[in-house]
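This section describes the prediction task in plain terms. A model, or a person checking by hand, is given the sequence of a single protein chain and must write out its three-dimensional structure as a string of tokens. No templates, partner chains or ligands are provided. The sample shown here is typical of the held-out split.
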Amino acid sequence: MRFLHTSDWHIGKPLRNQKRDSEHVAALEEVLAIARDQRVDALLIAGDVFDSAVPPPEAERIFFHFIGELVGAGIPAVIIAGNHDHPRRMNAYAPVLRHLGVRVVGEPVLAEEGGVIELPSLDGNETAVIATLPWVSERKVRDFESLMTEGKHLEEYADGVAAMLNHLCKSFRPDAINIAMAHVFVAGAKVPQESGERPLHTGLLYTIAPARLPTAPQYIALGHVHMPQDVGLSNAQYCGSLLQCDFGEAGQQKRVNLVDAAPGRKAKVEAVPLKSIRQLRNVGSAKQGVSLDEIRALAADVSDAYLKVFVKVDRPVPGLAEQVRELLPNAVDIVIERPEVAATEDSASWQKMTAPELFDAYYRQETGGNEPRPELAALFRQLHEEVTSAAD
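The expected answer:
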């Protein structure tokens, strides 16, 4: 059987204040085209379909339009919820979508309650047994423990997740193609400092070691980490997010995984690059900003990429952000990098200053020691006198 593994769509997620609906539409059209061209038996979506628990209507429209096109192409799908998805909301979709050949699992459940899905190949000659593990909260670990009949007390998150996976994998059969899907964070996975994922959910509390992943599956389709990568000794892979979700992911080649599997053999995995993805690019860095002159030289070389620009200045420049956006209209994030200027007056002496003296000191501090122009200082004094006179 042939599967297409994708995850972390984050439909509805903006980039700063920039909506990206059209990008999601284009990327999902490309995913659908790959699924059709490669004649896949099923699409595996490993969580974080939406970016929020209550997605905006347009995000749901994009998702259901894609599902409609997928069903029209005769391609089944298995979807699990991620930490950004609302589990009960995903479960609410499940009864209707199941009639269309799309299986949705919103919360971790026992194998016999829907945690394991059997899926025939399109030609009917093979069967896949798919163990599904959506995002597991701490509370769900405790709930699952109460359902287990083995009597083992699970005290740590990693133990609970490993027990869930092992329980689900007991349903595998030697004559079937055995696949696991999980939305988890595996220790050692690479996560950029400025990633689109929530830092709390990639911390130590929610981490499982690669050695805790089951070895029985022929392939483990992982979701949650946005950088595509192999994980551990088992045939487990993160295919990564659909789009470059934040500037820590700038330059990443986004992809889907084409997975060919037969009973009793390790699956063969081919990374298929996505070509429709609009790029994110950092101009300069936090350690090395660029000057306005350098930005002018770069202006013709950034195509349609969204930009995060680190601007280096040695003094305040009125309207600097506007100047940068005139040169780089796709700059959605502008960071001003200035050398720290030591205060010329200590705080104790400030308490003894008059308001005009404080204004002069503030101006010197903010402009690297320059004195305010006489007309500016006079204007401040005039305004201060008017305010204090009105107060009296």
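For orientation: The CA atoms of residues 18 and 283 lie 18 Å apart.
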